[in-house]
Amino acid sequence: MSEPKKVNDLRAGNTVDTTFLVMEKELKEFTSKEGYYLQVKLGDNTGSIWGKCWEKAEEVASLFEPGDIMRIKGVVESFRGRLQLIFEPEGVERSAETYDIADYLPATSKNIDFLLAEIVKTAEGMENEYLKRVVFSFLHDPDFINSFKKAPAAKIHHHNYIGGLIEHTQSVMALCETICGLYPELDRDLLLAGAILHDIGKTAVYEYTFRIDVTEEGGLLDHIVLGYRMVEEKIKGINGFPEELSLRLLHLILSHHNYGEWGSPVKPLFAEAEALCYADMLDSQLKEFIQVQKYEEAKGKEDVWSDFSRRLDRFFYLGGGKTHDK
Amino acid sequence: MSEPKKVNDLRAGNTVDTTFLVMEKELKEFTSKEGYYLQVKLGDNTGSIWGKCWEKAEEVASLFEPGDIMRIKGVVESFRGRLQLIFEPEGVERSAETYDIADYLPATSKNIDFLLAEIVKTAEGMENEYLKRVVFSFLHDPDFINSFKKAPAAKIHHHNYIGGLIEHTQSVMALCETICGLYPELDRDLLLAGAILHDIGKTAVYEYTFRIDVTEEGGLLDHIVLGYRMVEEKIKGINGFPEELSLRLLHLILSHHNYGEWGSPVKPLFAEAEALCYADMLDSQLKEFIQVQKYEEAKGKEDVWSDFSRRLDRFFYLGGGKTHDK
Amino acid sequence: MSEPKKVNDLRAGNTVDTTFLVMEKELKEFTSKEGYYLQVKLGDNTGSIWGKCWEKAEEVASLFEPGDIMRIKGVVESFRGRLQLIFEPEGVERSAETYDIADYLPATSKNIDFLLAEIVKTAEGMENEYLKRVVFSFLHDPDFINSFKKAPAAKIHHHNYIGGLIEHTQSVMALCETICGLYPELDRDLLLAGAILHDIGKTAVYEYTFRIDVTEEGGLLDHIVLGYRMVEEKIKGINGFPEELSLRLLHLILSHHNYGEWGSPVKPLFAEAEALCYADMLDSQLKEFIQVQKYEEAKGKEDVWSDFSRRLDRFFYLGGGKTHDK
Amino acid sequence: MSEPKKVNDLRAGNTVDTTFLVMEKELKEFTSKEGYYLQVKLGDNTGSIWGKCWEKAEEVASLFEPGDIMRIKGVVESFRGRLQLIFEPEGVERSAETYDIADYLPATSKNIDFLLAEIVKTAEGMENEYLKRVVFSFLHDPDFINSFKKAPAAKIHHHNYIGGLIEHTQSVMALCETICGLYPELDRDLLLAGAILHDIGKTAVYEYTFRIDVTEEGGLLDHIVLGYRMVEEKIKGINGFPEELSLRLLHLILSHHNYGEWGSPVKPLFAEAEALCYADMLDSQLKEFIQVQKYEEAKGKEDVWSDFSRRLDRFFYLGGGKTHDK
Amino acid sequence: MSEPKKVNDLRAGNTVDTTFLVMEKELKEFTSKEGYYLQVKLGDNTGSIWGKCWEKAEEVASLFEPGDIMRIKGVVESFRGRLQLIFEPEGVERSAETYDIADYLPATSKNIDFLLAEIVKTAEGMENEYLKRVVFSFLHDPDFINSFKKAPAAKIHHHNYIGGLIEHTQSVMALCETICGLYPELDRDLLLAGAILHDIGKTAVYEYTFRIDVTEEGGLLDHIVLGYRMVEEKIKGINGFPEELSLRLLHLILSHHNYGEWGSPVKPLFAEAEALCYADMLDSQLKEFIQVQKYEEAKGKEDVWSDFSRRLDRFFYLGGGKTHDK
Amino acid sequence: MSEPKKVNDLRAGNTVDTTFLVMEKELKEFTSKEGYYLQVKLGDNTGSIWGKCWEKAEEVASLFEPGDIMRIKGVVESFRGRLQLIFEPEGVERSAETYDIADYLPATSKNIDFLLAEIVKTAEGMENEYLKRVVFSFLHDPDFINSFKKAPAAKIHHHNYIGGLIEHTQSVMALCETICGLYPELDRDLLLAGAILHDIGKTAVYEYTFRIDVTEEGGLLDHIVLGYRMVEEKIKGINGFPEELSLRLLHLILSHHNYGEWGSPVKPLFAEAEALCYADMLDSQLKEFIQVQKYEEAKGKEDVWSDFSRRLDRFFYLGGGKTHDK
Questions:
Q1: Looking at beta carbons, which residues of chain B come within 8 Å of D319?
Q2: ipTM score for this prediction
């Protein structure tokens, strides 16, 4: 019988021999006797489980640090209603495999390659050669694409997982395509280029080795200015890029959070900027709501009302289930 | 040679014999002699022109009131760079034709029948029988449809013209269809029903005989509560409509302006309500921007910057023209 | 010697044989040995006390649920400075009496019948027959009166207890009577009808079997719209109710929370609506302050300053006692 | 036949010989010939009328200044639908009578002596000797009473007329009496003393010789601090005034505008202060609304909606008349 | 007798032969006869005067455009209490001199060379070689210095005149020097470099040929991002510039308007950034107040209170003169 | 070998015989046996340490209260990584010395006498005799000086330590001196007098026997009004003090927190008031930031980012150390 490989497949009684990301590590004093045991938080992209090693705690603890990928052999137990993974000192070894961080951190449930293909397809449909070139100067850059496919769009808020950036980007782009259909007076290529590039600064804002963290540059300059800088650099490399078009595209990046409360240094100053700004807000707010709603639903309360959510500043309605199930 | 029929086709020297909406009427004293002349503002759905009758002013003035449709014969002149229509006392008669107010007030530039067809098509695609029935209880109601096709969505702000409501409704619906594609976890039928019905209360808020006005009921109860009442009444007429589904649909109407600054009595309390709220905001804000931008562009200033717009609270960028023209 | 009947009469050493509302129920592990004891929170309308049963905990626990009224025989003990009620497994039985929930939940300290009589008296003094009839269509409705006399006015904030709604209603009405004396230009009957009916939607917002909870309808539609619906339904049943009067009365209900921050869908649009809005605010804010002040005073701190109150967003002044006592 | 004495009694054709307050004075050039005529704005406590003197304009103009009370003999004419008073150079003389400014500026329509009697009666009912003494140290001070009976409560906003302060004070006091009936836990004497004294600083804020103006002291220190200073001075003169009671009373003055937006240096820190704060707000907001509503009604528009009011930030509802008239 | 050279020296009766900036130009119809006269607004750095040419208006008007510097010979007259300059068609010729725009637009009353010297002196006192080099990369750049000495700091608000930028920069720098004395824990060189460079983006935001205008780049990207870009470019040219120091300096530029209401894309994230932010605010707000105060004082009203100032949102106090004069 | 005298000099193993302020006192139950031990928090102006007495806990506890200065003999031990001071029942005696509270509470790190000397020097440089006299009426008052040198400027926020008021005052004064240099149009003496006196009300707001507390007067009237009262009283004692100058100085006190959010009863109404307002804000905000930054740095985290600070409402940047160290 094959052993379970992923955290959310584990059940009490399983024996396990698989790799995990070490997320936390702590030596804990026994309450009943002298000495320490080792407690670790082990995760993959499906969730996390507490692991415990009762013996040689200090020695075992010296073998790895949070952020390492370790192969653990052990047994799953139930303790006070929650699962834990008990392992022996010998059951721990450093994984020799190369691995993809996306296998060990929470990640988008969408297919990243599909999202990218959607973006490329839209970019290929552009008619303005300059905008098309600046967009493809990113989409044809393998280093950029590597980051773009993995980067989260946040540390704490909406889309705060591997692939969050590209998921959000494709959503905003799709909304903007609908907008262009409704408002033919808008410059379609400009709005779509803005949608594709609006958050690319986030590839430089987050690092994610064993959790999502903000880089020094990311915190001190933020994604709006970093994205502006990345786009401007590419524009400089394109001969004859029209001046006004360049200013308009850069303005789309700078204004997409709206002036004031949300941190843009300029208000949207033409209609495509206004459109991008609200498309970004729609997707951000909706995803935020859905993430919080799923988190509350996962608690399995027997109540139609959620607990109070600070992030949404409200109790919200869980109801009796999906309405179409009735 | 055929005479011009519409205000925006008039040129100095034209003779005119056509019907106009009387928008304003005023007796003015001559500065150079005793007595009065008659000044009227004459409009149709392409714009308005000042008309003047130099003789028998009081007698002519007694023939009609603002809001009447009158057939005017006269001559177009240029005065201080603006056109005016000079007519004789004999050149005025009450129009005997029946007419459509949409021919005399500013109206959407979109095809209203097409917009309605889009909405019907989406409604036909609904799978939930209850939601489908409540939507069609409106779409199959000829009195409702008559209002729905003509009503503006505002008096002063975005979509403040004949057909504004249906244009806005179709846009919000289209955005929600895109959202449903991006977020399959949402209840598609619920969100689309909400999108189609969210602003129907506006059919009772505005009257528009010769300009857009707010009804007593519209001002005192407002479109959110009026729309809620209309939908609730239809739901009552549908046997076995599930209670939770009814509450959810009514909540979508009530919460679509968000609690607080914009006047909803409740915050959005589940994801479909959040989605509708931001889709409505996107279309409203974007249309508002575009209407103001067109108004400023029409001034024909030789400047890349607009005049200050109180409605947008900014100077905005007119630029050198559509970027793709360059 | 008669035994104490109410929680706030209990003293260490009392034997008890009376009915309580079970507010919470939990099996707790012994720290000193294997197994469980039963801990319950028992309440009536004077307060609550922790009860403990050391034996057959699981069996006893199966006899009742939170929300049940149980007859408990036991002994009051002092433990770490707080009272607790110790009972045997045999000392628990389901109460056979019918009971009034107002005897088991926190309730107004005012006489509810007196409050109602005050409201009826004011209603009887109305001269406008239509307003009088709509008010009495509620006051003569025994189901409504039953709810109206019990309903709280909130779950967490001011007047959050049995009878809170009628207490608040009578206060707002009394303030409006004073206002009518000061401002004879106001329509007295309209303002008083608005005062009496402004919060009746709350009878449908709260349920209170063993604690105050928000109904699905109450949360999703809220009391303003629910109250509007209730009043409109009654108006429809009154032949010849003048249209403008109807709109004005409904507007009073809808606008009484002011537009914006507090959730009305419309701003007050005539003076009686403004008056009701501020009378409601006065009573709400003052009661909120007094409830918090009493809560802080009950702590018995030896300090002139209260602890920081999040609800009032301030430290406030307790002083050295009632100033007139000095 | 007796001549009309008051501005609002004047009709075209009247001859006039009465005293007016000169509110404005201007020499205007004739458009049809060389030279000047004199235009003045003449007022009393019922309104104002434009006066014109066609001859010896400069000479006549030198006889008086705005703020003077002049006896004018002349004839009332109608010009472009408005009345004006035509007078000869000989028809102007300085009034020899002593006069009361309240006869020449807009004033409360209530009986000031009655308002004062109400306040005195309430003060006499106080039981706390210290609070009673501090209140009567004002009410028995003839200079204070003289100011208190005349002072307006504002220059532009609510109660901006002679007697406005005492009218507002009596209203707030009446509201507080109702509050004390509803909330017996409040210190009645403290709240009533606070209500009577809360705005007395306004006697030093406004001067009103021929219009309401702000004094230097009034503008730079404002009525809250000036009132605080006045009350503190009186308290110092009362032997044995309890320290805490003194602090509480002074705090009522200082906090009655609420901290923050409305300018109090401290938040209300006990319940009586909260009560006063909201009673003051109720009367201020309601009077503001009523004054604006009367102003709009006086325009005599044939529309159920008012013009947009900047002061109320809304269009409001005029309706078809007082609802009880129907 | 030498003729006056500057606008604020002109008196009625003067003959004039000097150069002016043409600020406005308009052909006006005579009211008394057929034809046009020419009206121009003529200015220099001391003020402006209306000029009129009664003959050959169209011909003369064709000789120049607003923004040109013209030599005008004419006579100063008084008309309705204001001065005007009457000139003949022959009295107008294009100025052959080269000129400095600072002689024709409102300019700082401070000595620009002194301000620059102060900045250079402070920069010379820096100990950190990297910061010193980046500052001097600007101060040694003659093109930059040319702009830096002339640029205004605003179009409408504080320091909206030639030299406004350097005046404001020196003030903020001086405040920061004081701050460094008070808070030795701050990094002096970092704060001073930030103070000197914080607004340099404004050299690219404004153009000022005959009035102050916003460039396309200035409006669409704004001075914060433009300044960031300028500093980053210079840093790239300095070998070995420490990474953290670079981030800190760039952060000072980006955060100096504070996040939110005032338009910075990031909040100040270390103490030097906080210091710069508030030093900038102090100087901006104070200068704004002083400019408005001078504008109101110049009206010469006989009142201690100013007219209402929208920019300051208050009436303010003019008083009886400088207090030390008394 | 000399024993350590101050908390921040203590190391494990030290024997101690010195005086401490008792900050907290609590009897704690032993977990391992019956009975209590005594736990106290002992502090001086360098920090605090937990002290424990294992025997005769209740007897020892009866010897002193929080706020007392006690001489403690004991031994410093390390427990779970933190130091604690173990003492015998005999090792506690009441200190017979007189002491200065500034030796036992956190205090400014600046030299208070130097700060005072700076203030006196500035005051001596004033030219306006009236302002100079009012300032020296405080600076020559030994009771005032005693309070002024010790008072904190806050309980929780910036400068919340002994000497905080004078430190803040000198900083604001220094900033104002710089401002006067930059803006010679300001009345130097008025602004400096305002700077020196603006917060003197705080001497009556805080009491600090063993911690900083707010007095009744301080909480109910607050420092702005208390400072106003103190200054006005001194002005009354100065013969011939000009009225306008008096109003201006009092206005500086009253307006220095700006109207609205921060609690001034009046907005700054002339330029010196605006200057003081922003100088006060600059020093307050900067000190707040620096105090929080030091608190976070003291945690010794190995991260460039601080923990989230509620007081600053942000994560901020700790970086890799002082930039000039690199």
A1: 216
A2: 0.85
